[in-house]
Amino acid sequence: MPELPEVETVLRTLEHMIAGRQILSVTVRWPKTIEGDPDAFAQALAGEHFNVFERRGKYLVFRMDHVTLVSHLRMEGKYYVQQPEEPLDRHMHVLFDLDDGRQLRYRDTRKFGRMFITGLEYDFSHFHDLGPEPFDEAFCPAYIHAYRKGKTQPLKSLLLDQSFVAGIGNIYADEILSACALRPGRSCRRITRHDEENIVRETRRILCEAIAAGGTTIRTYTSSLGVSGLFQNDCCVHEQKTCRRCGSEIHIKRIGGRSSYYCPVCQK
DNA sequence: ACACTGACCTGCGAGC
DNA sequence: TGCTCGCAGGTCAGTG
Q: Which of A99, A107, A205, A208 is most buried by its number of CB atoms within 10 A?
């Protein structure tokens, strides 16, 4: 499931592969992938160049000539750069014909991912209630303190709340709370200043390490493969049987509708 | 205002 | 073997 580090990896890999390329035409095979009118989407992108590659939270942002293309992979969205004669499968929902003869293909088995176009000056403030980036200095202990005031939700739900901080998903939320020795079900009302400092530091550390792990895939990419990160193979608690720190059995509990993995010994 | 639930989708594994 | 059921997950609309 792509979270911030995976989205960053996908973005940098695509930048490496298609920066400056022009879109000749767009084919939409599953219209619901496109927010808004798919025909207008295809028309607006024809002739546009991939100029600037940005990420905001889990959103991929491509600045073109006259429009901005925004893409969210949700759970299983992937991009492939292939030759047009390579066979399509039934999960390839949007095709972008490029000026060098290759094809950028969006593939999504669950069809949850979405993309849309908007103006060149798009900055997210009008459409999405996204919180600060984890690496932005605005994400600090004092910010957490102010944000959680009056709230009672579990810490896990707080970390998944994209208007609190942008880019964290279920896997990294579990890992961050494990690193902070906090149980996912703990109320955000009942943490200390020390915990707030830990959350900021461990969030950044874990995402940094994950981006670094994903970065290795950039150097080894092959043009016809989908891009994803590697860090998710290296979790302390998420989808683990035993705690990597103390060896205790990992517990699973549903919190906010998500499976949450934690060590009952290390996390209080 | 806050917190929780269900819908959107498909593939996969468990259980019968 | 073949079927059904439940689960996985990010976001948002809807509900209490």
A: A107
| CA atoms of A61 and A223, how far apart (whole Å) | 21
> Is residue A124's beta carbon less than 7 angstroms from any atom in nucleic acid strand C?
no
For residue A25 the two structure tokens come to 């035409």
Question: Is residue A168 domain-shared with residue A115, that is, in the same domain?
Answer: no
Query: What average pLDDT does chain A have?
Result: 88
Domain span at A17: 4-128
Q: How far apart are CA A31 and CA A246, in angstroms?
A: 49
Nucleotide nearest to A76 (CA to C1'): C9
Å from A105 (CA) to C1 (C1')? 37
pLDDT of residue A127: 59
Query: How many other C-beta atoms are found inside a 10 Å radius of the C-beta of residue A124?
Result: 15
The conformation of residue A187, written as its DSSP 8-state character, comes to: B
The 3-state DSSP class for residue A216 equals helix
CA of A52 to C1' of B9 (A): 31
What percentage of chain A exceeds 70 in pLDDT?
90
Query: Which strands make up the sheet holding A114-119, listed edge to edge?
Result: A52-56, A59-63, A67-72, A114-119
Segments in chain A forming alpha helices (H): 4-18, 38-45, 141-148, 155-160, 170-179, 193-219
Q: Is the pLDDT of residue A91 over 60?
A: yes
Check if A241 is active-site. no
Give the pTM.
Answer: 0.92
Instruction: Name residue A240's beta-bridge partners.
Output: none
User: Is A5 known to be catalytic?
Assistant: no
Examine the domain organization and report whether A254 and A156 are in the same domain.
Answer: yes
CATH of the domain at A47: 3.20.190.10
Catalytic residue status for A258: yes
